[in-house]
Amino acid sequence: MNEPSWREIVKDLDVRALPASGLWNVAFGYVSGPRKLKIEAKGTWGVTPDRPYGPDGDRFSSDAVEKCLCPIVPRGALIAKIGGGTSDRTGFIIAVGSLCTFDLADPAAPNITPVRGTLFLAMNDEPGKFREHTGNLLATIWEAS
Q1: What is the DSSP string of 2-43?
Q2: Which residues are 101's β-sheet partners?
Q3: What's the CATH class of domain 6-144?
């Protein structure tokens, strides 16, 4: 298969480990399908000052993650969600890490629940532990053209 042609839509977005408000950083005002998106992140942030990680989080930890925003992703990893608000767990949550590519289906497609709304980014962790977070990542977002 051929690699899509990518057009940058957000460059070096400052994704704070401790967002200015709520649990999520706003990355893009509104996304809807049909659309292909790619997110790439770099940098270091920490669940605590003495536990720094890159965008893939603590891949080798045995920490329980069932209370994290996304219970199937390592603690400290970059995650995204589409829809919902800055302080909730509603919407469609996606594991991102250092690189993620995903398709948003056409909302008019039959038997498909449309995924659309604000695109948010955050560190995967338990909401009650966010006040201990430090640092930030830089994320770049592309869409297929």
Answers
A1: PPPPEEEEEEEEEEESS-SSSS-EEEEEEE-SSEEEEEEEEE
A2: 38
A3: mainly beta
Residue type, 42: K
Q: What is the mean pLDDT of the chain?
A: 93
Q: Which two tokens stand for residue 75?
A: 């603690």
- DSSP state, residue 124: -
CA dist 51 to 42, 57, 58, 71, 101, Å? 16, 10, 9, 19, 27
Domain layout of the chain by residue ranges: 6-144
**pTM of structure:** 0.94
Distance CA 113, CA 119 (A): 17
